[in-house]
Write a structure and sequence with these properties.
Elements lengths: L1 H15 L2 H18 L1 H9 L4 E7 L4 H12 L3 E5 L4 H9 L5 E7 L5 E7 L6 H21 L4 H8 L16 H38 L2 H8 L2 H35 L5 H6 L6 H26 L8 H22 L6 H6 L6 H11 L5 H28 L11 H11 L1
Parallel strand pairs: 1-2, 1-3
Antiparallel strand pairs: 3-4
């Protein structure tokens, strides 16, 4: 037990003190703070900066209406009547005096049409806003041509009343689903990045010690399963330390930015009223997912002798994480799809998919429990098998980047 704790604390503290860990944490904190204050940053750079659009109105009657529409739609777009010719307007745009040139005219039915000219067509936001403004004017003119009153026009565009009613008992309402979707979306990203980042860290840790021949000393004094899980738990504590710090910083930053935990961002994404069961399942599936991939990464890392070979060896594992994440993203819009339900019981996908289903749907208790049991059983099998591969793998040196080396590692374990 003393050896286990020694390796665990050494792994945790040595990684905690590294410059790379500190720099990564600081950079991530800055990103979190930046995202929390993104709207303020955008407003800071955009303040007092209006996009000037030159307008040549060939009809003599559309400019004023369009100007009023744009003031209501987007104050950042400023229209200016251009007195010169079309060629003069194009030159002014090329010289940077205006963002674009808008030509207004009427078609054969006396309805508005326009041509927008700019240095490039990469920016679609401004043309889209201008088109929306002209669409409003066109609708008004067309309505007047057929003698529609404003009330009659309003009825034409009035949305059809459409209500969704769930027949199952305890089914989530539309509002609860929207909140759950945002919350699950955020937590899925946390699980995804944490699993990839820290599982890779374990594989790198094993390969680094092996390349320095420290393994030959450790393996003779500590059992492989103790050594492997000491490293897994050490990196796990490191990940919890970093994530707890980042979550606290993110929570504080967003709270300060919004001055309240009610409404706005928190209300839309479901952070204002988080169900305790969702948080509990998030922690359970995060921890189990971490142990699943960490165990897999540990024995894959033991098969390589050079750090350069790590990425090639763990690429299939990374692909499984990516596949699970992509299926979960698809499941956010169709959580009841048979494909999502079936794949949520495949252990390498369960941490993300079962959590997504628990957050989005009202499932029978046995379904998430079955997912947890499947994960625990898979982790146990991987732990036993991984310990055997780990024991032989850490004694293998030379070029080693093939999965055939698993068989060699097992043979070395038997011969000991």
């Amino acid at each position: 037990m003393n050896n286990f704790m020694t390796i665990l604390l050494h792994t945790y503290l040595s990684k905690l003190k590294t410059k790379s860990f500190m720099i990564t944490t600081i950079i991530t904190v800055l990103i979190v703070v930046g995202l929390a204050n993104l709207s303020g940053i955008i407003d800071f750079f955009n303040k007092d900066s209006q996009e000037k659009i030159a307008v040549i109105d060939e009809t003599g009657m559309l400019y004023t209406s369009l100007d009023d529409q744009m003031k209501a739609i987007n104050n950042d777009i400023s229209l200016e009547a251009f007195k010169g010719t079309e060629e003069d307007g194009e030159k002014a745009v090329k010289d940077g005096e205006y963002k674009g040139l808008l030509l207004l005219s009427l078609d054969q039915e006396e309805l508005p049409e326009a041509t927008y000219k700019s240095r490039s067509i990469a920016d679609s936001a401004i043309p889209s806003e201008l088109q929306n403004g002209l669409q409003q004017i066109k609708t008004q003119i067309a309505a007047s041509q057929i003698n529609l009153s404003p009330e009659e026009l309003g009825k034409l565009y009035e949305p059809v009343p459409f209500e969704q009613i769930a027949l199952e008992e305890n089914a989530k309402t539309e509002e609860e689903l929207n909140q759950a979707r945002g919350l699950v979306y955020v937590l899925l990203f946390v699980i995804y990045f944490a699993v990839i980042l820290y599982a890779n860290m374990i594989a790198m840790e094993v390969a680094t010690e092996k390349s320095s021949r420290v393994m030959e000393i450790l393996i003779s004094s500590v059992s492989p399963i103790k050594q492997m899980f000491a490293k897994i738990l050490g990196i796990g504590l490191l990940s919890l330390t970093q994530m707890a710090f980042l979550l606290l910083v993110g929570y504080y930053s967003i709270k300060q930015n919004l001055n309240s935990m009610e409404g706005g961002f928190f209300e839309f994404f479901g952070f204002g009223n988080i169900p305790a069961s969702t948080i509990a399942y998030a922690l359970i599936f995060f921890i189990l997912g971490y142990f699943l991939y960490a165990t897999l990464a540990a024995f894959l890392g033991s098969l390589v002798s050079r750090i350069e070979d790590i990425q090639q060896m763990i690429t299939p594992m990374t692909m499984m994480v990516v596949a699970g994440f992509m299926i979960a993203m698809f499941g956010l819009s169709q959580p009841e799809a048979s494909f999502v339900t079936i794949t949520s019981y495949i252990p390498f996908f369960t941490p993300m998919l079962m959590f997504m289903r628990v957050g989005m749907l009202t499932l029978p208790v046995w379904e998430p429990i079955l997912g947890i049991v499947i994960l625990l059983a898979t982790i146990a099998v991987l732990a036993v098998f991984g310990a055997r591969v780990y024991r032989g793998g850490v004694l293998m040196y030379g070029k080693s980047n093939s999965f055939k080396d698993i068989k060699k590692a097992l043979q070395l374990t038997k011969n000991e």
